[in-house]
Specification:
Blueprint: E1 18-21, E2 24-28, E3 41-45, E4 50-53, H1 60-69, E5 74-78, H2 89-97, E6 100-102, E7 127-130, E8 133-139, E9 148-152, E10 157-161, H3 179-190, E11 196-199, H4 208-233, H5 238-245, H6 254-270, E12 274-277, E13 280-283
Parallel strand pairs: 4-5, 5-6, 10-11
Antiparallel strand pairs: 1-2, 2-3, 3-4, 7-8, 8-9, 9-10, 12-13
Helix pairs in contact: 3-4, 5-6
């Protein structure tokens, strides 16, 4: 749905470092699942001195795999956001290596890795020189308020965490996650110079701007479907609205879909296009 996979699935096996370009390698954590796909992608960046981007969940096997594949001293640990499949291993890896922790602190929504305490909080647009690797931090709130994408200009490669995923659109976790901010962040990335997207889960995608266009269109199409369902169903519960709006999604994913639906409704309410009444959600003014 969000772009073309340009590498075979055999490259996404846990524990095997796979080269994605000069000084860029990926390790997949052994946490495959419904919401993590093949597992969380950890990226090893640089030659000589190494930066680790998104060390992943707390897992001793993955910790040893990162250290074993590093090929040099790990000096920096960078996280895209602090959901529990992306940053918990940072503390243990920093303890083992003495690396500097880079990222935004966790928000207090009850879904975050509170063990992450950054040494450096990058500013939006700041260029981080990490040994031989230069990364530009791009603040992209939406999936979570502390999401940061990192642009590797030398490889024209954009690391997106969970802001952009291969094959699926991310869950927007309100109230910390924000659908309006998410769409604005997609527009912001369109203005950046990159060719490929390296997501937090799944394979690297080429034609990165096309990926963003498709993702934005998908979200707006779902929003239109929400408005049509509200108009036809009248006052409706969130649960009933989920089954209508996501009738093309397997029922075992509806609990997650409902979270993104809620984020869409909050956006629509803020725009005066939907409202929550005592008897349920309605088109505003209905």
């Amino acid at each position: 749905m969000t772009g073309n996979l340009v590498e075979p699935r055999s490259h996404l096996l846990p524990g095997h470092a796979h080269s994605l370009g000069a000084g860029v390698r990926r390790l997949v954590a052994p946490n495959a699942g419904m919401m993590t796909g093949p597992g969380t992608n950890t990226y090893l960046l640089g030659v000589g001195e190494i930066a680790v981007l998104d060390p992943g969940p707390q897992d001793d096997r993955h910790l040893e795999a990162i250290i074993g594949a590093s090929g040099g001293p790990i000096r920096w640990i960078v996280v895209t956001h602090t959901h529990r499949d992306h940053s918990p291993l940072a503390a243990a890896l920093a303890q083992r290596t003495g690396a500097c922790l880079i990222g935004l602190p966790p928000p207090g929504d009850g879904r975050q890795d509170l063990t992450f305490e950054p040494d450096i909080t990058p500013r939006d647009g700041e260029c981080l020189q990490l040994g031989t690797t230069s990364l530009t931090a791009i603040h992209t709130p939406g999936h979570a308020s502390n999401c940061v994408c990192y642009l590797h200009a030398g490889e024209r490669l954009l690391f997106t965490g969970d802001h952009v995923l291969e094959g699926v659109s991310p869950v927007i976790l309100a109230p910390d996650g924000d659908m309006k901010a998410y769409l604005q962040s997609i527009d912001k990335l369109v203005g950046c110079d990159f060719e490929r997207i390296a997501p937090g889960h799944g394979g690297v995608m080429d034609r990165g701007k096309r990926v963003l266009d498709v993702l934005r269109a998908h979200r707006l199409s779902r929003e239109s479907k929400i408005l049509r369902s509200l108009a036809s169903l009248g006052p409706v519960s969130l649960e009933r609205l989920t089954t209508s709006v996501y009738d093309d999604v397997a029922a075992d994913r509806h609990a997650w879909a409902r979270l993104t639906l809620e984020a869409h409704l909050i956006k629509l309410a803020g725009e005066g296009r939907a409202a929550l009444h005592e008897d349920g959600w309605r088109v505003d003014g209905a």
